[in-house]
Amino acid sequence: MIKMFLSMCKAENARAPAGPLDNDGSMAHEDSNGQWTGTDGNRTWPSWTGMVAAMPGLLLFSGGALVLAAMLWGPDGVFTGSGMNDWIMELSGNLMGLVVIVLPGQAFFILAALVPALLSARPWKERLGLRRPALSTRTWLALALATPTIQVCSALFASLFFDLTKPSSHLEQLSNLLLGQSGLGLVLVVLCAAVLPGLSEELFFRGFVREGLSRRHGFALAVLVPAVFFAAAHMDPMHATAVLPLGIWFGMIAWWTRSTIPAMLAHAINNAFAILAGNIAGEEAKNQTAIESLTQAQGVVVAAYGLSLVLLIVGLLSLRGERTRG
Question: Looking at residue 157, what is its pLDDT?
Fold first, then answer.
């Protein structure tokens, strides 16, 4: 498997275009010798600095928002003993938890991507990879819609290291927050925990970070490094392990399409599918893994997973065909 991956990296590097994509946003151009040059050279420090600073920045930003919320709305004694943990668990059982637990982190990633992109000499949309995908719509849409299959693979990967029948307290909080919703509550959960993360996290990890690294580094580094930091940003070993394969998949889609947009859609589809499948499966799915809850879900969920597998095959075959013709 390692040999197969290395061969894939070599093939992807050989296909990488020497196009005008820079690292930190400076304009690039082709000189008389056919070489792409620019005021930035091939610097990747903005991407590396952004990734390293993202972890403490996320902790400070989210932690500060949580402390502020506790001061404004928390019960008496929230800052004593286990008061904060008890309050967070209480919050995870209602929609107020979306505002306090989910939204601050997403706001941080939007700022972490947009601020340096806006300060760049290159148009901010280009710096974040917000360009038309290089593949046909049929191909990249099939790959994005195939993400639920990768979700199952991610759960299987995590099961190699953890007993997923005993979720961490972090995952229990997420389950309490995301499952058991209906009507307007379910719509708000999908918007805040699926659509928004697809936008904000992909803007940073597959947009700002990957775009910078890919100018100088090859497929393996430009895809794997953002995926590792993306996983670490989930702040929980079990959760981080489970989303690592997904981060790699999002990076591969962005690499293949030379665009962040399909990765955004894939991320949103993954989260929305997990939320909807869990709510369809019912309350009994709260403390179960994705694989276990699947066995109790309605037929429409099983059919949707099957369809995503078909779309994965179609998408990969279409990708191969386009790259062969290209």
Answer: 96
Q: Is residue 26 part of a domain?
A: no
Q: What values do phi and psi take at 201, rounded to 5?
A: -70, -35
Give CA–CA dist 213/206, Å, rounded: 10
Domain that holds residue 298: 43-325
Q: Which of 180, 194, 210, 110 shows the shortest CA–CA distance to 151?
A: 194
Q: How many residues does the chain have?
A: 326
pLDDT tens track for 242-283: 999 999 999 999 999 999 999 999 999 999 999 988 887 665
The partner residues of 143 in beta bridges, in order of sequence, read none
Residue type, 94: N
CA 277 – CA 78 distance, rounded (Å): 34
Single out the residue of 157, 155, 147, 156 nearest to residue 312, CA to CA.
147
pTM for this entry: 0.86
Q: Tell me, yes or no, whether 7 lies in a domain.
A: no
DSSP code of 75? P
Between CA 78 and CA 231 the distance in angstroms is 30
DSSP assignment letter at 134 = S
User: Based on the structure, what is the number of domains in the chain?
Assistant: 1
Question: In terms of DSSP H, where are the helices of the chain?
Answer: 2-15, 45-73, 83-91, 96-97, 103-119, 124-127, 137-145, 147-159, 169-178, 183-190, 196-202, 210-216, 219-232, 237-257, 261-281, 290-296, 299-325
Predicted local distance difference test score (pLDDT) of residue 139: 97
Helices 299-325 and 137-145 pack at an angle, to 10 degrees, of 140
Q: Rounded distance, CA 47 to CA 226, Å?
A: 9
Question: Does some domain include residue 27?
Answer: no
